[in-house]
Amino acid sequence: MSKPRVPRTDRATSVWMCVEAAAAAITIVARGRIPQNLWTMIHLVTLGVLSNGIFQWSWYFTRALAHLAPDDRRAGRDNTARIIAFNLSLLLLIGGMWSNLWYATVTGATVVGVIAAWHGWALLTASRERLASRFAVIIRYYIAAAFFLVVGATLAGFVTVAMFDANAPAWLASARDRLTVAHALAGVAGWVGLTMGGTLVTLGPTAMRTRMDPRAVSFATSALPLWVGALLVAGVGTLAGSMRVASVGLLVVVGAAALGVGVPLCRAALKKGPAEYGAWSLTLGAAWILVAGAGASLRAFEAADATGLRAAFLPWLPILGAAGLGQLFVGALTYLMPVVIGGGPSAVRVGVGVLEAGAPIREAARNVAAVFTLAVASLGGVSADRLTIAAWVVLLATYVVDIVLMARCGVAQAHTKRAAASSPTTQGGRRG
Fold it and tell me: What CA–CA distance (Å, rounded) separates 334 from 276?
């Protein structure tokens, strides 16, 4: 009996990666050509690329950890429906934002919140029914992440009304910056951060092809309530106008991530450091996330109000997204793609070989460009702007190469699988 077909809903991630790369190129070449440029770039990354990947891959790991049946609808048909609905709502969000139709954007945000709640509930029921693994904490990270996406989507609705509705109440209009920062904290540190943190507990050592640190699960378990609690404090502090409370809360979040995920990952790396492109990308991406998070938190401590807090965060967002979250996500995909496509050891080796092409050059170029961007940011002036643009061109080029190689990996590995399936030995006979 053949295995049930697993829907290839991860194609949405690939599409949004291409859209993001094109938008980034347009932004570098001709600023202002894309409506709501900053909003668009941030949400193409966080919702378009990362969220599609999260919906898909969180269930990939949950299926294994919770020992779900191959035909379990929560990880199959229902997840496909969630992803389709999510992408339709994302298109509505973008269309509403570009056309200043606040009610369309609010509707899209509301649908995203409903989908996130459905996603979290499905994860919760799966963990309650079948989970018998010591890695239960990973799914709890995913459930907590879904909660923060619900929070972030709810806050997004208020932000949109404050931005575009001329009849918005005065208190709502005055709270715009506080709502924006709280929304960003819930989305980035909550939805994206918790998902990636939980995944790294097992994926990091696996990608390095080494054993987990014996205390990795214990560290992750202890860090989760601290991470969630501190993030709630940061969000409430932001909404209440207490910027120092928000800054301290975020700094504790960074500390929880470093201790709960970073320390065990470093210990695993000391046994057998990263050797492949995916492992290096995971490691360096995680490091950049911690650097950007700590830098933004310390800068935010000096902010007098939400406007200052937002201004303190903005310089770190490109680094957090491109060098941190983006690099970590690419590292995860680089490791997972050949494994998931499968086809036997020979086919997997073909896929890995494609993805490893020029790996040291790509890794060095991306991270040197990120360091260079930070280094020249304080200089100011036309020369610094030009140097920064040049660095971003290099950084973007590395991601374009990643996308191309991922496509080539899929084609090459699929070809190898078909060739193996059609060979006489696999068919159990000889040609006549």
Answer: 9
Token reading at 320? 């957090």
Chain segment 295-313, per-residue pLDDT in tens: 888 887 778 788 888 887 8
pLDDT tens digits for 365-424?
Answer: 999 988 888 777 655 554 567 777 888 889 889 999 999 999 999 888 888 888 877 765
In a domain, 332, yes or no: no
What is the rounded CA–CA span in Å between residue 64 and residue 343? 19
Q: Structurally, how many domains does the chain consist of? A: 1
Q: Which pTM does this prediction carry?
A: 0.90
Query: In angstroms, rounded to a whole number, what is the distance separating the alpha carbons of residues 122 and 280?
Result: 33
Dihedral, CA atoms, 12, 13, 15, 16, nearest 10 degrees?
120
* Residue 73 is assigned to a structural domain of this protein: yes
Write down the residue that tokens 């191309």 correspond to: 404
Q: What is the pLDDT of residue 85?
A: 95
The whole domain housing 124 covers: 11-164
C-alpha–C-alpha distance, residues 182 and 243, integer Å: 11
Which amino acid belongs to residue 96?
A: G
Q: Which two tokens stand for residue 254?
A: 């960074």
Let me know if residue 79 belongs to a domain: yes
- Give the alpha-carbon dihedral of 178, 182, 187, 193, to 10 degrees: 130
Specify if 22 maps to a domain: yes
Got the DSSP string for 223-282?
A: HHHHHHHHHHHHHHHHHHT-HHHHHHHHHHHHHHHIIIIIHHHHHHHHHS---SHHHHHH
